Amino acid sequence: MEQKKTRVTIVGSVYAQPGTQFVYMGRADQCESCTIARVCHNLESGRRYEVVAIRAASHRCPVHHGGAVTVDVAEAPVEMRVSPDIARKNTTIVVKFPECDEACETFAACHPIGVVEGQKYIITDVLEGEAAPCRTGPSPVLVRVVPLPEGLPRYTP
Fold it and tell me: 74: which of 4, 25, 66, 137 fits an S-S bond (Cβ 3.0–4.6 Å)?
C-alpha cells in the first residue's frame, strides 16, 4: 500500500473527519492575531487536501465556529479533463487550462478547483467514460492527477 506524504495542520472541527477533502484558500484576516496561525497556514493555496488522521489537540478559533482540530492531511488526487494528446498514465504534465467559456458543459471538469495552473502534476489514471464535447479542440479525456511530489527531479526545458 502506497504511503501518502502527510502534513500536520489545523482545520475547522466540522472538517476534522478522515476522508474529508477541502481546497486550502489561504489566510483569513482574523488569523493575523492568532498565535498558532503558522500551523494552520502551512499548506499551498489552491491545492486540494484530504484529512487522513485526527490528532487529540483542539483549539479555539475566530474563523471556525465550534473551534479547530489538529489533523494530518495529504494532497488529494483530482479528476480533470485534459487533451487526449497528453492523457497517458504516469505522465508528468504542466497544467494549462483550455481557453473556453464557463457556459461549456465540461468547463468545471477542465478547470477543476484544487488544481493550480502552471504547476506540475502526474497523471495517475486515465479514466473510462464518454467523450466530452469540446468547442475549442479535441474532446478532452478524464484523468486523475496528483501534484508532483517534492524531491522528485523536475525537468525544465
Answer: 4
Using the CB atoms, write b or e for 49-84: b if 16+ within 10 Å.
Answer: bbbbebeeeebebeebeeebbbbbbbbbbbebbbbe
In whole angstroms, how far apart are CA 9 and each of 40, 67, 68, 95, 101?
Answer: 5, 14, 10, 26, 36
Q: What is the pTM of this model?
A: 0.79
Q: Which residue has the cell 504542466?
A: 94
Helix, strand, or coil here: 108? helix
CA distances 5 to 41, 74, 114, 156, Å, are 17, 6, 17, 24
At 28 the three-state DSSP class reads: coil
Mean pLDDT estimate for the chain: 87
Identify any residues that bridge with 49 across adjacent strands, giving them in sequence order. Answer: 22, 75
Mean pLDDT of 22-50: 89
- Torsion over CA: 118, 23, 101, 142 (sign): positive
Question: What residue ranges do the domains of the chain occupy?
Answer: 7-75, 78-147
C-alpha separations of 88 from 57, 99, 147 in Å: 42, 22, 15
